[in-house]
Design a protein that fits this description.
homodimer; mainly alpha; Arc Repressor Mutant, subunit A; Tetracycline Repressor, domain 2; elongated; DNA-binding
Amino acid sequence: MSSRSPRQRRHEKTKQEILQTALGLIKEVGFENLSLREIARRVDYSPAGLYEYFDSKEGIIQALSNEGNRQLLEALSSIQKNQSRSVTCYLVEMCLAYIDFALHKREYFTLMSNLPSERTTIDEPVRADSPYAVYLETVQAAIAGGEIQIRENFGPEEITYSLWAFVHGMATLRLTHLMHFQANFEPVNRLSLELYLASLA
Amino acid sequence: MSSRSPRQRRHEKTKQEILQTALGLIKEVGFENLSLREIARRVDYSPAGLYEYFDSKEGIIQALSNEGNRQLLEALSSIQKNQSRSVTCYLVEMCLAYIDFALHKREYFTLMSNLPSERTTIDEPVRADSPYAVYLETVQAAIAGGEIQIRENFGPEEITYSLWAFVHGMATLRLTHLMHFQANFEPVNRLSLELYLASLA
DNA sequence: CAAATAACCTAACGTTGTTCGGTATTATAA
DNA sequence: TTATAATACCGAACAACGTTAGGTTATTTG
């Protein structure tokens, strides 16, 4: 698992320390105020020293985005396993889990929102380790089980996209326009999603 | 309409020139790379000179956001007048207009996405000149016409919110994650929205 | 033990947003 | 019309930023 040489181990360790510090800093001051120099101060390095571990500030952000993607993937996958009802029910829970992740790990979410997918065409394969893939898989299971019907120009990918857009909208709205709105959106979100999924049957 | 004194007129004019220059700059280099000094270079002012017209860089962004809000409002309102079918049909077109605005005037849209609403509670009144108000009005018309049914914990505001989240998700996804995806999303968006609205009947 | 590599720092460069002090220019009031 | 006040504008500076170059020390490898 960990690299053999002590040096490589130390390297990996401080790399993680830098990342965790950066994450905490984002939590404190927000993504747009993330400062490489402040990270350096907190890990007790000179600004230049960090460049031994990351190519640039953007590199740190990239690494954190990947980690966030991994965590979101994990959050979504754990839903699929822990329940045992209809597939559509899974779907709703997964959708709500997406929103939950956005709200409670917003340090990660705001990072990830700015990164484009490398898939440029419907013909290209879906990245297996993407949240989208998890949704797609579940939608396909729902179709196979007859819980969701496909239509003209509205196959599994289109359905998955629309669900993703729905929850992504709920999440981003909550974090931006509605950031100061005092209310629990979970019931409304759940109901909306259930209604939409019902219309796909 | 315009202020009486020549000085005030000139002031307003260069203010607009600054805003337009800033807008063009955002179009060129993106919001995150907007530079006050570069704006100053292009309008042939010293950086300090701009502070006679705006309190800060943020002030310029604020002004542009307001203008964007005005334009979005106009785009949405024009839908309502030019058509003459069912209210639900209006709604779909208005939703698609939101996405259209986001894609074709993304300089404005990206600005606006970062600004929080001042409404903090469901009890506070809705700002009349907000896109949300336009949607809400139309949803209420649809309810009054019997095209949409309200439910427990799912009144006009909740329905409007869910629609807004839906289209906002479609718009932001298209501009971030799916920015390089080569496809026309309009048919899928339309179909999704029609299905969702049908489930509200 | 020598050579090579990795780790780290100081100093600097070119940016950025913003403020201060001063100088013109224009409008207002006597 | 002239004195006073307000506006418009700029040069210079400040503090902060991301990044790079060059150099020094520590560690690993041959």
